[in-house]
Amino acid sequence: MGFPDNFLWxxxxxxxxxxxxYQEDGRGLANVDICPSGPDRSKxxxxxxxxxxxxxxxxxxxxxxxxxxHHYQEDIALFAKLGFKVYRMSIAWTRIYxxxxxxxxxxxxxxxxxxxxxxxxxYGIEPLVTITHFDCPIHLIKTIGGxxxxxxxxxxxxxxxxxxxRYQGLVHNWLTFNEINMILHAPFMGAGLVFQKEENExxxxxQAAHHExxxxxxxxxxAHEIDPNNQIGCMFAAGxxxxxxxxxxxxxxxxxxxxxxxxxxxxxSRGAYPAYAIKQxxxxxxxxxxxxxxxxILKEYTVDFVAFSYYNSRCIAASLDxxxxxxxxxxxxxxxxxxxxxxxxxxxxxxxxxxxxxQVYDRYQKPLFVVENGLGTIDETDEHGYVxxxxxxxxxxxHIQAMKDAIEEDGVELLGYTCWGPIDLVSASSxxxxxxxxxxxxxxxxxxxxxxxxxxxxxFAWYQKVIASxxxxxx
Length: 475
Known about the structure:
Elements (H helix, E strand, L loop, with lengths): L7 E5 L2 H4 L22 H5 L22 H15 L3 E5 L2 H4 L10 H17 L2 E7 L5 H7 L6 H16 L6 E5 L9 H5 L9 H26 L4 E8 L2 E3 L4 H23 L4 H9 L10 H7 L4 E6 L3 E3 L8 E2 L6 E2 L5 E2 L5 E2 L1 H15 L3 E5 L17 H19 L5 E7 L19 E3 L11 E3 L1 H11 L7
Parallel strand pairs: 1-2, 1-14, 2-3, 3-4, 4-5, 5-7, 6-8, 7-13, 13-14
Antiparallel strand pairs: 9-10, 11-12, 15-16
Helix pairs in contact: 3-5, 7-9, 9-12, 13-14
């Protein structure tokens, strides 16, 4: 058995982490452009420092990324050599609508993505497009407060209609928002939220989330109306929460943490606010303001499939010891004594991947798509720029085997797998180039210095073999 014959193997990137050219050809400024690397990053992406323009006191590696804007032909040709069936990428909102509220889109931005999609078509690669991978135009943050305003729904739907119309026949698979649950953990990066002193941050986050959920439902409606062949997915940052012990308080806390993330997908996939969320939001006086039509919109326009990222599981204790903390994609958790950890302190848990696949599929009974999974680490090159990245190969081998087990032994319905990222790019969590994920090494450092030359790592040939064998040859 193993992987289905039509399984979609590929890789995933995000515009703001790889394109560069952040001011070229009419592109406007977005929140993702002003999230720097360095010590202020965490407070800025959390919305606790109002930072709405670039300055000389911070460094912004995303401004250059890996310059995919000028290298996309070379990069997609390399993806084709890997054997990609699918390429997950995102649209930079401000390449299409630089301020976010214009009546007419920026043709240079539209043409750039059309060129990419046509090149993918040439190589037989299906694009999987994330409409917004954290992008929010700075102009809309300054004028209406980002996603705290319901006006954002109309601006977002205008973007969606433009994309669905322009790329009809070129793109059939879409994701409405990347890691939508990150609005709770990095609300400025996720939704353009900046908080003032003494504001009820939780209430604002959930109000913004409600606006995104309604926007996602209406985008799903629009996509199906424009092209019945369109398939729309939601996407969240997944990773099962283990209780730190069998102490009932730990088990209950782990359940609550899981629910916090499943809430978004419960709405997008099932079509309604779950009872546990309503009760919790009411207790905290954080129930979002809704319009009368919202309930019906959410109910009628649910997604076709559920996509998620998986990097690690989490370990949850009712009383969290700050001296026993693990790191992992902006989520706080206890350190699991049974796991090893990456150079950035993220737990490595391939069996947790299988557990997560089962839990998500059991909960929603819709096709799943793994759209991010990978190992960020420091790569050492030889004199030819070659990287012998055995640690990355081992990580991916174990996770792909776990995914195979979930399909073969557990009956999970899985559409595809796009590892993060097939080529080096700027890390979203740390804002650094030195934290690398790719099968392709890009000669550029955190300061943007380097030749930008692309070199295949050892893992390139390994993943090429995995795809060619449809996941049977993992050696």
